[in-house]
Design goal:
The structure is a single chain. Helix 1 links the parallel strand 1 and strand 2. The chain has a single domain, classed as Rossmann fold, CATH 3.40.50. The longest helix has 16 residues. It is built from seven helices and five strands. By secondary structure, it is of the alpha/beta class. It has a five-stranded parallel β-sheet, with helices on both faces. About 50% of the residues lie in helices and about 15% in strands. The radius of gyration is 14 Å and the shape is globular.
Length: about 140
């Protein structure tokens, strides 16, 4: 039997409640999730837990908000997913794709991908559910 399909959820601490809502819906598709405050215990090696989860992840969901763009860990997690060549699902909240595309310092690797808004998440969840089912049947 293969490992469970794992979705790593990257977000800024300010966006924790929104990230938790996304996590609940992702779990509803049958995927497992990694959300730092839910899966890293007090006193645990934070960076080691993140690295381990990113090594196992099948895809990355990154919640992009104006304040998330200022968080170094967001960019580190995106870079790790990019290096592993796993899907990077950019979820926009509080900014538009146009604002992100024109913002200085945003890497082309994000600009080249389709992005969705939080209002488009049901479409993503439906696609994710299909990927999870395909993964289980392998």
């Amino acid at each position: 039997m293969s490992e469970p399909y794992l979705v790593f959820i990257s977000h800024a601490g300010t966006d924790t409640w929104v990230a938790q809502q996304i996590e609940a819906h992702i779990r509803g598709t049958g995927a497992q999730t990694f959300l730092d405050e839910a899966h890293i215990g007090i006193g645990e090696d934070f960076e080691e837990a993140i690295l381990t989860a990113l090594e196992r992840a099948n895809e990355l969901v990154v919640l992009l908000t104006p304040w998330a763009l200022k968080r170094p860990y967001i960019w580190t997690e995106i870079g790790a997913a990019w290096m592993r060549r796993i899907p990077i699902v950019s979820v926009l909240h509080g900014l538009t794709a146009e604002e992100l595309h024109t913002r200085a310092g945003v890497p082309v690797l994000l600009k080249r991908r389709d992005m969705i808004t939080v209002n488009d998440l049901p479409r993503y969840f439906a696609q994710l559910q299909k990927r999870v089912q395909q993964h289980r049947s392998q």
